[in-house]
Amino acid sequence: MTPDSYWIFNKSYKDFLFLVLPAYITIIVAKIIHPTSWVDMVVLFIVFHVIDSGHVYLTFYRTHGHRQERASQSYYLWAPPLILITCALWYLSGGLYFWSFVTYSTLYHNLRQFYGITRWYQKKEGNFSPWPTRFLYSLMITPAVGFHFRNLGELSIYNRQEVFYHPNLTYYKISLAIFMLAMLSWLVYESFCYFKNNRQWSPGRVLSVLTPAAAYSSGLFFGDNYLQIIGPMIVAHGIGYWALMGFSMNRTFANPRLKQFVPAMVILAITALVAGTIEWFGEEFLFSWIEEGSQEFTERLLIALGVGLYLTPLYSHYLFDGFIWKSKHRQAHLIY
């Protein structure tokens, strides 16, 4: 039996609930629903606006919302304005590959979170090896590459040019074959580890590779709509982040209430709901304004500033995550 100390949340059911099941549940739900009823629309709102958009704002509690952390780093003050200005100027200058950068940097950010979770499990077990993360990357990147060779028409998130589509059935099949070969190699590797360790396996580490591989391959290789393609990925990422943020708040905050898992999770859930809803309204207004395509410089400047403001929380989240989850962070010993 796997010791509780081998699980990130120190309880196997919590790891399954927050780090494993969300991806598989979303894969199933995405195959069932169609955006025709109010129930389906609620599901889409929760996935894309509460979980995906909303989780971005949870970083606040480990950065600006944490007094000691806020005082320890000056970049918490100057980075957001710099991000806003950079995004606004890039968009105003014509925005060459602008939305492509947003799409692919988001993919990279998601890859790094799953990488961190796999490494975390290895640390809990006291057994580091480069092979699990190598397999993880291959099982996530191969579907991402193969996705570009599918013929999905004008499917996009921000605009029609953001993804570098190159429909080619042969390349798609090659990508799928490489993925299957990587999966087979990973299974052989884990079988070798199982017998090498006296028929004991590491379920946390195994699931931390299998779950994102399932989310990415099911969506990017076989999904037919937004929810099927990116739903499993963003739910696995967003729910996992929500739980890990709650766990880290328990370990780093002095407030006794925030040292309890459930109250911290409730606060984070409310934050994601409110912030995600507000961003949804802002997004609807901003993109309807963009579609009007005004040629007036003043209006284009205002739109560019709106785009910069829209993306500032996202890239602050990406940037700050690169610091607060590092093993060398000043509070890392409290979390890991």
Q: How would you explain this protein's 3D organization?
A:
The chain is mainly α. It has one domain. 74% of the residues lie in helices and 0% in strands. The chain is built from twelve helices and no strands. The chain has helices spanning 12-32, 38-55, 67-72, 75-92, 98-125, 130-147, 169-196, 203-222, 226-252, 261-292, 297-324, 332-335. Helix 1 (12-32) packs antiparallel against helix 9 (226-252) and helix 9 crosses helix 10. The longest helix is centred in the last third of the chain and has 32 residues, at 261-292. It is globular, with a radius of gyration of 21 Å. It starts with 11 loop residues before the first helix and ends with a helix.
Class from helix and strand fractions: mainly alpha
SSE run: HHHHHHHHHHHH
Low-confidence stretches: none
How many distinct domains? 1
Number of DSSP-assigned strands: 0
Strand content: under 5%
Q: Summarize model confidence as the mean pLDDT.
A: 92
The 3D shape can be described as globular
Rg for CA atoms: 21 Å
Percent of residues in helices: over 70%
Distance between the termini: 22 Å
For the largest beta-sheet, the strand count, sense and barrel status come to:
none
Multimer state: single chain
What is the number of helices? 12
In short:
With 336 residues, the chain is an all-alpha fold. It has helices spanning 12-32, 38-55, 67-72, 75-92, 98-125, 130-147, 169-196, 203-222, 226-252, 261-292, 297-324, 332-335.
Tags for this model:
12 helices, mainly alpha, 336 residues
